[in-house]
Amino acid sequence: MGGVSNHAYFTDGRDHLVDEVVYIHTKPYTFQQHLSAGGFSAVYMVKRSDGVDVTVKVIDKSGVPYMTEALVMSYLTEVSHLEKLR
Fold it and tell me: SUPFAM superfamilies from the xrefs (predicted)?
């Protein structure tokens, strides 16, 4: 599942997501642990509202000057295709 949020998480080097609840497709996800980070994204261990642990990749759109809504939508389309392979 993919989603888009307007939150800014990488602005001052602190990890603003750990212990935060973010709604993705109207469902709450509690960010528990930062697992890794790359050039313009980070991966977190997150607990879904049903108690299941999942990983969530968060893309920092401000970290990539050429990141446009079209690229975000392309990424979400890729996520959708990968979900169908599961």
Answer: Protein kinase-like (PK-like)
